[in-house]
Amino acid sequence: MALFGFGKKKTQEKQATAPAVKKEETACACGCSGCGQQNAASRFIVLGACCGKSLETLENTKTALRELGFTGEVASIGDSLEIAKYGVMQTPALVIDGKVVSYGKFLKVEDVKKIVEKLGVQL
Q: Which CATH superfamily is domain 26-116 in?
């Protein structure tokens, strides 16, 4: 504690000489840099791409869509604030054309194909 200003100068000097550290921003609440948040305007989005099940769901979604003839990108969002905007409380979740079609469930390739066919999505 600096009483009457004594010792205050030392702390100010330390702050002035400390190198500025720029904090790298990550798109994911878990702090990893591998979540790969992409364009949220994509037709197909997998939410929660941080955990193992979500990453597998992302890969299964890509595989299923590729097999169905879709050549575009499948986006993945790991940021909890962005996920909350969709009203999703459990991940992994699949969003097609802005509508949440599955959440809280690991999706296999066949599951994704069934969802796309059931919704009649034009690829």
A: Glutaredoxin (3.40.30.10)
